[in-house]
Design brief:
This protein has 247 residues and is α/β, with parallel strands linked by helices. It is built from 7 helices and 11 strands. The radius of gyration is 19 Å and the shape is elongated. It binds NADPH dihydro-nicotinamide-adenine-dinucleotide phosphate (NDP) and ligand LZUJQKHR.
Length: 247
């Protein structure tokens, strides 16, 4: 049995994770921690792995506290910067036996979309991303879109491809969206949506669209459970669930 703590327990994701852990024969729920609790509660309860679905402003401190407490971490919370990831990597040197997985998206379709987009990006002149989410989401662009853009940018740089063509010289309202490593990202917030992303790739006379849709948060649970089961076997920092998959 793996003993699991859930941070952000009463949130939209945390409540699904609790249900998924309770339904898994090889996992047991050690602690459900919310805003008024802390990582110390997870440690006192003997958790081996903690799952964090909290808020961008809290997640880094949670991960450092989990490392100090000797608890493996599976993190879905978004908002991570390169500097914050480096700080976690540095901290893990003190506890080389621990694993930390930070995954911007646990839905298998989204994980595959990111891989497909990076593979396709070198064959198309233009690429842009549209992410679409429920209006209660606090961060934009989404962690998934940011990770997708970074993967695309890395693939294009490795292939020696420059930025997508764009004649825009006048955009006082920022209509061309955020630009992440040269890739334009557009964020839609709409009641009724859960989590969706389209990667649009264009060449003269053709377009490839890669689209992933999470219609329900149950879509994230197989990936979260994979992370919980695998994290202790992957010491150090892993960014992206694809690091645990045979892709
Ligand atoms: N990687 C993935 O596959 C996915 C990632 N996400 C990401 O997960 C995060 C959470 O999303 P979602 O569940 O929709 O958000 P919610 O706002 O529904 O849930 C966040 C929860 O965290 C609690 N919380 C805030 N601070 C702390 C803290 N310091 N310790 C413990 N709990 C805390 C909040 O409590 P209170 O309300 O009292 O402040 C709330 O219950 C977001 O960053 C989102 O982008 C979402 C879906 C999938
Ligand atoms: O807040 C959400 O809902 C989601 N957040 C993650 C992100 O920012 O990419 C993952 C998924 O898109 C749902």
């Amino acid at each position: 049995m793996i003993s699991v703590a859930v941070l952000g327990a009463s949130g939209r994701m945390g409540s699904h994770v609790i249900e998924a852990v309770n339904g898994a024969p090889d996992l047991e729920l050690a602690a459900a921690v919310d805003h008024d609790g802390s990582v110390a509660d997870a440690a006192r309860a003997g958790a081996q792995v903690a799952v964090d679905f909290t808020v961008p402003s809290a997640t880094e401190a949670n991960v450092h506290a989990l490392i100090d407490a000797g608890i493996h971490a599976v993190v879905g919370t978004t908002g991570w910067t390169e500097e914050a990831l480096l700080r976690v990597e540095e901290h893990l040197k003190e506890r080389p036996e621990l694993g930390v997985l930070i995954a911007p998206n646990f839905a298998l379709g989204a994980v595959l979309s990111m891989r497909f987009a990076a593979a396709a990006a070198r064959y198309f002149e233009s690429v842009e991303i549209v992410e679409l989410h429920h209006p209660d989401k606090v961060d934009a662009p989404s962690g998934t879109a940011t990770h997708t853009a970074m993967g695309i940018a890395a693939a294009r740089a490795a292939a020696g491809i420059g930025p997508s063509p764009d004649a825009t010289t006048h955009d006082p309202e920022g209509a061309r969206g955020a630009v992440i490593e040269g890739v334009h990202v557009h964020a839609v917030r709409l009641r009724g949506l859960v989590a969706h992303e389209e990667i649009l790739l264009g060449n003269p006379g053709e377009q490839l669209t890669i689209r992933t849709d999470s219609f329900d948060r149950v879509s994230f649970m197989p990936g979260v459970l994979l992370g919980v089961r695998e994290v202790a076997r992957h010491p150090g920092l892993t960014v992206g669930l694809d690091g645990y998959m045979a892709l």
